[in-house]
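ABC transporter substrate-binding protein: structure, please.
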Amino acid sequence: MRRTFALLLAALFLTGCTPAESQQNGLRVENCGSVETFARPPQRVVSLNQHATEVLLALGLGDRLVGTAFPDDHVPPPEVAAEYAEVPLLSDRYPSYERILEAEPDLVVGGYASAFDEAEGRGREAFAKSGINTLLLSESCASAPSGMDTLLADITMFGEALGLQDNARKLNADIEGRVRAVEQRLQGVQPVDVFVYDSGEQAAFTLGGNGVGNDALTRAGGRNVFSDVPKVFEDVSWEQVAARAPEAIVLVDYLGAPVQHKQSYLEGHPLASGAPAVRNHRFSTIPLVELTEGIRFPAAVERLARDLHGA
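Here you go.
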C-alpha cells in the first residue's frame, strides 16, 4: 500500500496535478494548470468525452451525471453500459457553451484538452466566470509520459472531488490487479515491435510515447515503434513507418473510421505494404477509448497481450 501511494504521488507531480487538499473553505484541487475549489461534492456534472464519462460512471456518480457528449464507441463497457444509456447526450461532438449551461452543471469534466477550447467559447476561465468548476483528465496536459499511475492518480482525485473516495479505492485496486495479472503471465516474453495506425494518408497518425496507450502496449508485451515521439498521438512519415519495420499493426477503431478501410489502405500502400506486419497479415484492432486514459486500460492490456502473445 505504501508503494502504491508513493506511485500515485509521483504521477500527480509529473502530470501537473497535486493531491486534493481539504481546506477550511472546501476542497482545493490543482488540475492541469487550474486551481479548483469545491465547497461540497458536485451535484450536477457534465462530461464532454466518452472515456471521461465512463470513469465517472465507474466511480458511481449515478444520476448526478446530467449530460455527456462526443461518443467514440457504440458499446460502452458492460460494467457501465446501463448507466451510460441513461445519461442525456448533449451532442455527438462538442456542444456549445450555451448548450452546456442549459444542463445547469456545477462541474464540467473533459477527457481531452479540446473539450475546453477557448476559441470555441468553452475555455475553463469561461466556466469559472459562471461559477462552474472544471476538471480534465491529466493525460491531456502531461509534460512527461503518462500511464497507469496517471490514471490511478486521476481516479483518486475525482473520488476526492466527488465524495466517492471508497469507490475510487476499489476501482483503482481492480484496475491494478487486472494489469498485474497480465504482466505476470508475460514474464520473460520477447516484446513485439508494433505500429499503431489511427488514420491518415499523406502522413500516418500514430501513437506516440507520452500517452496512456503507449503504457498499455508496453505492459502487454509490445514495443511501440514510435515511442520516441514525445506526444500522445502524432503524424509521422510513411518512410519512417517502413524504416521501423513493425512486426504487428494495431488498427484504431472509432465511430466514422472503418478499420477495414485502414487495413486495405496499408496493404496497398507502396511503403507500408513492405513492412513485416503487412506481409505476414499480422493485424489487430483496438477501440480508441482503450488507448486513452480511462477504465478500459486493463481491457487494452488484456486485448493487446492476447493479440501479440496469445496470453
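Notes: The radius of gyration is 20 Å.
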